[in-house]
Amino acid sequence: AFSGPRWTESCPAAAEEPPEYTAADLTREMEDQSSPFPALVGEVQRRLGKILSTSDLKMLYTLYDFLALPAEVIMLLVSWCVEEMERKYGAGRKPRMAQIRKEGFVWHRLGLDTAEAAEAHLRRQSALRTRTARLLPLLDIQGRPPVEAEQKYLISWVEMGFDDGAIRLAYERTVLKKQSLNWSYMNSILKSWHQKGLHTVDAVLQKDSSRPRTAAPAPAAPAPAARGDGGPVQDDLERMLQYMDRQSGGEGGR
Predict the structure, then answer these.
(1) Where are the domains of the chain?
(2) CB neighbours of residue 157 within 10 Å
(3) Per-residue confidence of the chain (254 residues) as pLDDT tens digits?
(4) ∠ Cα 108 14 119 (to 5°)
(5) DSSP letter for each residue of 188-237
(6) Please, are residues 52 and 97 in contact by the beta-carbon 8 Å criterion?
(7) How far is 64 from 90, CA to CA, in rounded Å?
(8) d(CA 42, CA 50)
């Protein structure tokens, strides 16, 4: 268990600004032999590969004292921020303490105030990151990670419960309408399907009635539709089958 004087023992309102810590506050905490803060400072400096400035120390102390995040949670936070920075911008890139502080306030709002809660959150984030990276080729995006705004769209679609095929189908309809990927338009398609409870290709093709259909005279005698001659829905199905065949072939053949 981690002890030491904590600002939030008389917890301020969530909207209240943190105090303006002074150099004397930091010195007192660093000299307190019962406090885990000095060891935390050493670990953060090692992880970031630099000596923390006074400004950096104040931001770190805000996480520790004002938000009352335990030292082990702060280390998980720092490690996650480092990994995210390197994933986006390459090995050796390190986050600034201001970025870590900002993410720390997000964790605080999410209630990630124990190592167990933080680790569970990181597992979810890692799974989302893996899934969203797999979605990018479905949108014909190669060779780069998604930017923040794109990632928000991707995460929302995953959390709505769409499978890969439905997301690809929404992309194809977007390109057909807009001639290129339009994130807002594609999102409107998927939100419409989500409201109807349609989250797979089969469900969309069978039940989505948003596409106009032209009435035609009934044939004199019923006849089975030829492959590729079944109207817009059949066209969508044919295209999706061909796409999934190509994807399977690219992973090692059928």
Answers:
(1) 1-113, 125-210+227-254
(2) 22
(3) 333 333 333 344 445 789 999 999 999 999 999 999 999 999 999 999 999 999 999 999 999 999 999 999 999 999 999 999 998 888 899 999 999 999 999 999 999 999 999 999 999 999 999 999 999 999 999 988 888 899 999 999 999 999 999 999 999 999 999 999 999 999 999 999 999 999 999 999 998 755 544 444 444 444 454 444 455 556 666 666 676 666 666 555 44
(4) 10
(5) HHHHHHHHTT--SHHHHHHH---S-----PPPSS--PPPTT-SHHHHHHH
(6) yes
(7) 29
(8) 10
- Return the exposure string of 104-133: e unless at least 16 CB atoms fall within 10 Å of the residue's CB, then b: bbebbeeebeeeeebeebbeeeeeebeebe
Task: For residue 157, give the amino acid letter.
Answer: W
CA neighbor of 192 nearest in space, from 163, 160, 165, 168: 160
Helices marked H in the chain: 23-31, 37-48, 54-61, 71-89, 97-109, 115-135, 148-160, 164-178, 183-195, 201-207, 231-250
Cα distances from 16 to residues 19, 46, 172, 187, 248, in angstroms, run 9, 31, 47, 36, 54
Helix, strand or coil, per DSSP, at residue 94:
coil
CA distance 240 to 202: 10
* pLDDT for 178: 97
Name the token pair of 220.
Answer: 């004199």
Provide the whole-model pTM.
0.68
